[in-house]
Amino acid sequence: MLGTSLQLLVMATLSLLYYFDLKTESFIVTAAMTVLNALFTYISIKLGPYFYGYGFFLSLLTSLTAGILLLRRVLYEIHYRTFMFAR
């Protein structure tokens, strides 16, 4: 249930990144989510049934942290990007 809640937050972060047309940052978050989900899920399966679901949760937590940090960096300089027409 926590993993699904984090997935909703990751999708909201990705929506904001796509809204600001930040394709590189969106790709970084999506690629991190994909690779980490595969890696952490493989590890959690090898650890046994008590750890099922932790891979999904940890990959989303890491991706959400990366997405928020990237979005924070962009929103910090939003006035400059908006009014100075610089990218």
What can you see in these coordinates?
It is a single chain. The chain is an all-alpha fold and 87 residues long. The protein has one domain. It has helices at 2-19, 23-47, 54-76, 78-83. It starts with a helix and ends with a helix. The model has no long low-confidence stretch (mean pLDDT 92).
What is the compact description of this entry?
With 87 residues, the chain is mainly alpha-helical. The chain contains 4 helices and no strands. The chain has one domain.
Helix-strand blueprint:
Elements: H1 2-19, H2 23-47, H3 54-76, H4 78-83
Provide the gyration radius in Å: 15 Å
User: What overall form do the CA principal axes indicate?
Assistant: elongated
* Topology, number of strands: 0
Largest sheet: none
- Please, what is the average pLDDT? 92
Beta-sheet strand percentage?
A: under 5%
Q: Give the low-confidence spans.
A: none
Q: Work out the helix count.
A: 4
- First-to-last CA distance: 39 Å
Query: What class, by secondary structure content?
Result: mainly alpha
Could you state the order of secondary-structure elements as H and E? Answer: HHHH
Helix content: over 70%
Number of domains: 1
